[in-house]
Design a protein that fits this description.
The protein is of the alpha/beta class and 407 residues long. Helices cover 34% and strands 24% of the residues. It has eleven helices and 15 strands. The chain is elongated and about 85 Å long. The structure holds (2S)-amino(hydroxy)ethanoic acid and manganese (II) ion (MN) (2 copies). The site of one manganese (II) ion (MN) has 5 residues, from loops.
């Protein structure tokens, strides 16, 4: 018997809160990729997917899938890893939404020829490499990168992946997954300011993330005369201050940039730094602005090496282009929100999402719910329960329409 599918509000909220217990840190979570808590959360999800009647796979890089037992399905989900001191909803919301939608559709007897596949991608936050799980699943990373990326603790990606060494690889099956739908908290202040519970994402920014390495020579900081020093830190600071000035000069209206970490080694007040690292990231939805920043960075590295041969090198962990959402998915999300009487607004995403990686291969759509105070990537991150429930209802209605239109 086909019934009207319904979000179970209590089950949705309690699953979200239970997941937030894993790696809980105050009001937030600490589940950086492949930490004990991240892996525990993946096993917890696998059990939830199994109980929902989905076929479970944890793959070779830790992506967790719960697949409907049909040959065609809409892929839905997000990620369950977090930044080092993250909030409880970033990523988790989209995964639990997808699970709840799959449960609601199957309880109502709606899943016929076309179903829902639920996923939690691994290392979305790029503790090793941004969107690592989704990009690997989509075939855009081969195993050579396992030996090229480290996390901030100096753990090699290949070593972190030992936890999944007995697992099979997964590959995006385009004949099965005809699209990918991801819901997420907005992580910014716009929906709240507009007083609207739902955002229909228009595009995701392009992102460049890289590390700059500086080399010098360790020496006694009290006895080595200034002209004799090879100071890696001095090169870093000089280049950083030039980047600050030139980025500001070249920025478009919406360009953002960040210097997320500085490392000096050996790291003592009385030792001249032998080695230094600077994390640089910039984002824009206009590819031209990204290219001007690329050029400035390359130019400054050249200038540093001209002043002191081989003192500076760069390695990029992410260089993605802006990507637009599928117009049909956007329309279906908008219709679903309208049908349910939830006000919605078109909104670009300044945050990166797995959808951007998957969207290189199949159509994508994204829905946002408001973030209280616009806060995210901090334990302060939160969303009102009523908005959490509203977003799930819109996602459910949109999913049902997408399944019907594909069937
Ligand atoms: O960094 C980001 O934009 C995202 O939260 N992964
Ligand atoms: Mn995040
Ligand atoms: Mn996220």
């Amino acid at each position: 018997v086909i019934q009207h599918p319904k979000i179970d509000r209590d089950r949705l909220l309690s699953d979200l809160r239970e997941l937030a217990e894993i790696g809980k840190d105050g009001t937030g979570v600490r589940r950086p990729a492949y930490s004990e808590a991240d892996i525990a959360a993946r096993h917890w999800l696998a059990e939830k997917f199994r109980t929902a009647g989905l076929d479970v796979q944890i793959d070779r890089v830790g992506n967790v899938f719960g697949r409907s037992r049909v040959s065609r399905a809409l892929l839905m989900g997000s990620h369950s890893d977090s930044v080092p001191y993250g909030g409880w909803l970033d990523g988790s919301l989209g995964v639990i939404y997808a699970l709840e939608v799959a449960r609601a559709l199957s309880a109502a007897g709606v899943i016929g020829a076309v179903g829902v596949d639920v996923v939690s991608f691994a290392d979305e936050e790029g503790m090793f490499a941004g969107w690592f799980g989704s990009r690997t699943h989509c075939g855009d990373f081969d195993d050579s990168v396992w030996r090229k990326f480290w996390n901030a603790e100096g753990v090699l990606l290949a070593e972190a992946l030992e936890a999944f060494k007995d697992r099979q690889r997964s590959t995006l099956d385009k004949s099965r997954n005809f699209g990918y739908l991801e819901a997420h908290i907005e992580q910014g202040p716009r929906l709240e300011a507009l007083g609207k519970p739902v955002g229909i994402v228009t595009s995701i920014v392009g992102i460049r993330t890289c590390k700059l390495y500086f080399s010098g020579r360790a020496d006694h900081a009290g006895t080595t005369p200034m002209p004799m020093r090879k100071d890696a830190g001095k090169h870093l600071v000089a280049l950083l201050s030039r980047l600050c000035a030139r980025f500001k000069e070249a920025a478009g209206e919406d360009t953002v940039w960040n210097f997320g970490n500085i490392i000096m080694k050996p790291g003592a007040a009385n030792v001249v730094p032998e080695h230094a690292e600077l994390f640089v990231q910039y984002r824009d939805s206009d590819a031209k602005n990204l290219q001007s920043f690329d050029a400035i960075l390359a130019d400054e590295i050249r200038a540093a090496n001209a002043a002191e041969p081989n003192c500076c090198s760069m390695s990029s962990t992410m260089a993605t282009e802006p990507i637009a959402m599928d117009p049909h998915f956007r329309q279906v999300l908008r219709d679903a929100a309208t049908q349910l009487g939830h006000a919605c607004e078109d909104i670009p995403s300044g945050a990166g999402h797995d959808a951007a990686a998957v969207g290189m291969h199949i159509p994508i759509g994204m829905l946002f719910v408001p973030s209280i105070g616009g806060r995210s990537h901090t334990p302060e991150e939160n969303t009102a329960d009523e908005h959490i429930v509203a977003g799930a209802e819109v996602l459910l209605a949109a999913t049902q329409r997408l399944l019907e239109s594909d069937a």
